[in-house]
Amino acid sequence: MAPTFVTIILIACLAVLAVLLLGVGGFAKGGEFNKKYANKIMRLRLLLQFIAVLLIVGLTWLTRNGG
């Protein structure tokens, strides 16, 4: 179960990275895209980070409790 969990965590972290890079790219370019989507991208990044942290905490809990 742990290798599957680690794979899910890796995918979640890569999703956070992708959204972060999208936000930084939009900020660097500026213009209409940044005005329209900057706040939505930031909210999505925060949601994905929260999910990734919960998964990491869950894996730590499973590992410490013999799961």
UniProtKB/TrEMBL annotation:
HIG1 domain segment(s) = 1-67
Its domain of life reads Bacteria
Looking up Pfam families in the UniProt record yields: HIG_1_N
Q: Which residues cross the membrane?
A: 6-25, 46-63
Which InterPro entries would you find in this protein's record? Hypoxia_induced_domain
Q: Give UniProt keywords alphabetically.
A: Membrane, Transmembrane, Transmembrane helix
This protein is called what? Twin transmembrane helix small protein
Species for this entry? Oceanomicrobium pacificus
